[in-house]
């Protein structure tokens, strides 16, 4: 891949890199995206599933959806895109992953600094006493309950719920301080997460988009790579190696 001069030079002088990722980076691991053509929400509506009232109305159905996704996730592995992002840590002092995904694949790929804006499907907690249950849950008696009798829910952020303040604050700081802000595999329609792209842009970061199609933020990207993340990111990493070798 022939990189354009500006991007090549940017890579040469940058230290702080942020990868803001969405469901698209896990698509090549076999995990369906939300809004793409094979998106899971084409069949199911988010309002019916990813919100607290839906859970209180029908916890069984919401758990069935999450257990179905958990099964797919457990049968999946990090793909070349996740792995390339983890490898960036060898060439830059400060690499941060800010993900909207709940599939834990960045951690499994070896990334060290990860902020999870929308939670993690491997964690669960009691809606009453907030006790965490992160081992295999028992569904033999229906929806799992806490010792205190409260319903146990997945530790993910549903629509209308606040994002974990510590993760969001740290992500905003990383966006502001970033030299290069990669936007990978996200339709950038869900807020406040998508707002981070504008925060980075306003702070003077170089915005690099990696997606298979145009998105809401393509117009503010300094450079867009239209292709699959699992192919594009390893190619960019190869260029990084050349840049770094050239400098040493
Ligand atoms: C909030 C976690 C404050 C669970 C998710 C009315 C009332 C309340 C709030 C709102 C409202 N109206 C609007 C809002 C705000 C709302 C929102 O933004 N709605 C949108 C849809 C308009 N946000 C919220 O509710 C947030 N909370 O605002 O709280 C508040 C509190 C009280 C009252 C008012 C406000 C909470 C949002 C979090 C919701 N939880 N998921 C779960 O996963 O089950 S959202 C869900 O969407 C996932 O987290 C997902 O990550 C996220 C974003 O989707 P993407 O990751 O971008 O995935 P998508 O499928 O859309 O796109 C995939 C992309 O990849 C595509 O561009 C595709 O082209 C590309 N792609 C595909 N393959 C590849 C690829 N790219 C590269 N390579 C490939 N191979
Ligand atoms: Zn409890």
Attribute tags:
SIR2/SIRT2 'Small Domain'; binds zinc ion; six-stranded parallel sheet; elongated; two-stranded antiparallel sheet; single chain; alpha/beta; Rossmann fold; binds ligand BV8; 10 helices
**Overall number of domains:** 2
Which sheet architecture does the biggest sheet show?
6 strands, parallel
CATH architecture group name of the largest domain: 3-Layer(aba) Sandwich
Q: What is the CA-atom radius of gyration, in angstroms?
A: 19 Å
In the sheet with the most strands, the strands line up as: 3-2-1-6-7-8
Structure ligands: ligand BV8, zinc ion
Structure, described:
The chain is an alpha/beta fold and 248 residues long. It has two domains: 158 residues, 3-Layer(aba) Sandwich (Rossmann fold), CATH 3.40.50.1220; 77 residues, 2-Layer Sandwich (SIR2/SIRT2 'Small Domain'), CATH 3.30.1600.10. The chain has ten helices and eight strands. The strands form two sheets. Strands 3-2-1-6-7-8 form a six-stranded parallel sheet, with helices on both faces. Strand 6, helix 9 and strand 7 form a beta-alpha-beta unit. The chain is elongated. Zinc ion (ZN) binds next to loops. Zinc ion binds next to loops.
Short note summarizing the structure:
The chain contains ten helices and eight strands.
Secondary-structure blueprint:
Blueprint (H helix, E strand, L loop, with lengths): L4 H9 L2 E6 L18 H4 L2 H4 L2 H6 L1 H16 L5 H8 L6 E6 L5 H5 L4 E3 L2 E8 L25 E5 L8 H13 L2 E5 L10 H8 L3 E6 L11 E4 L2 H19 L1
Parallel strand pairs: 1-2, 1-6, 2-3, 6-7, 7-8
Antiparallel strand pairs: 4-5
Bound molecules: ligand BV8 and zinc ion.
The site of zinc ion has 7 residues, from loops.
């Amino acid at each position: 891949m022939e990189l354009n001069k500006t991007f090549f030079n940017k890579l040469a002088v940058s230290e702080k890199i942020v990868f803001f990722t969405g469901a698209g980076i896990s698509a090549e691991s076999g995990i369906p995206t939300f809004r793409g053509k094979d998106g899971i929400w084409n069949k199911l509506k988010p309002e019916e599933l990813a919100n607290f009232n839906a859970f209180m109305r029908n916890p069984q159905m919401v758990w069935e959806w999450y257990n179905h996704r958990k099964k797919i996730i457990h049968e999946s592995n990090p793909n070349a895109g996740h792995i390339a992002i983890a490898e960036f840590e060898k060439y830059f002092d400060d690499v941060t992953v800010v993900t909207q995904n709940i599939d834990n694949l960045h951690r499994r790929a070896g990334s060290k600094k990860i902020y999870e804006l929308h939670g993690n499907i491997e964690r669960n907690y009691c809606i009453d006493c907030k006790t965490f249950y992160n081992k295999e849950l028992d569904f033999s008696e229906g929806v799992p309950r806490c010792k205190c009798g409260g319903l146990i829910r997945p530790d993910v952020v549903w629509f209308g719920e606040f994002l974990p303040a510590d993760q969001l604050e740290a992500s905003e700081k990383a966006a502001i301080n970033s030299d290069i802000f990669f936007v990978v595999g996200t339709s950038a329609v869900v807020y406040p997460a998508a707002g981070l792209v504008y925060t980075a842009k306003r702070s003077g970061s170089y915005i690099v988009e990696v997606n298979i199609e145009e998105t809401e933020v393509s117009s503010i990207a300094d450079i867009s790579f239209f292709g699959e993340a699992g192919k594009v990111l390893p190619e960019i990493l190869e260029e990084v190696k050349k840049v770094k070798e050239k400098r040493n």
